[in-house]
Amino acid sequence: MQQLQAEIGLLRDSVLAKEEELANVKGRCAQFEQLSKDIQFSMDRELSAKSAEIERLVSSAAEAESLAAAKEATLSEEISALKRSVKAIQSELDEQVRISTESAKAAEELTTANMDLTKKVASWEEEKNALIERCLNTESDLDFERDRALENKRRFDEALSAMHELGRANQSLQMDISKHTSRTWLDDSAAVNCTSCGKVFSLTVRKHHCRVCGLIFCAPCSSKTAQIASHKNPVRVCDSCHTEVQNR
């Protein structure tokens, strides 16, 4: 009996321990349930935040995709423009190469022309020196010819003076001959006008004696000549005397 009571006591202790353990388990379950609720609430709140974040990210992704598409289109246009620019630059580069080639060719031609010009300049320099020498010689010859011309002028002046003297002597001789004829040799100072046309004598209208009648006429009225007995060669006569001599 005591043993049974002891076993009952043990069982009662065991039941109490189990009840206490059950209470602990229930408490822990309640804690777990509260923790689960807290976790669920936290997870719901975090899920809501994540959903909002996902929506924001999706919206951002859509915007980014739209921007990427626009950027891609812009980049495509820029690439096309760059290709055109590269093509234009290539064309310009080809043109520059062509111009450079032509410039090099022109420079070579200019160098050749410069060499030819240098040779011509040297030749011209030699010709110039030769011309200078010829000019110096010519200047010496000109000095000689100038001296000769001055001498000839002096001789011509002397001959002209002698001719004037002969003219005056001839006029004096004509006057002497006229004195021996019935005609009178009119003195220069006595004539103011032409005996024929009446033109007034001046520096430009010169006086001329008719070798037949001895009167004084202008050049047009005494432009004819006639052969008379007192002279070996034909002499100046007035128009009237010329007609008279011709009718003899």
Tell me what the structure shows.
Residues 72-134 form a coiled coil. Pfam families: FYVE. This protein is mostly helical and 248 residues long. The chain folds into two domains: 38-182; 185-247, Zinc/RING finger domain, C3HC4 (zinc finger) (Herpes Virus-1, 2-Layer Sandwich). Helix content is 75%, strand content 4%. It has two helices and four strands. It has helices at 2-179, 239-246, and strands at 208-209, 216-217, 224-226, 235-237. Strands 1-2 form a two-stranded antiparallel sheet. It has a two-stranded antiparallel ribbon with strand order 3-4. A hairpin with an 8-residue loop joins strand 3 and strand 4 (235-237).
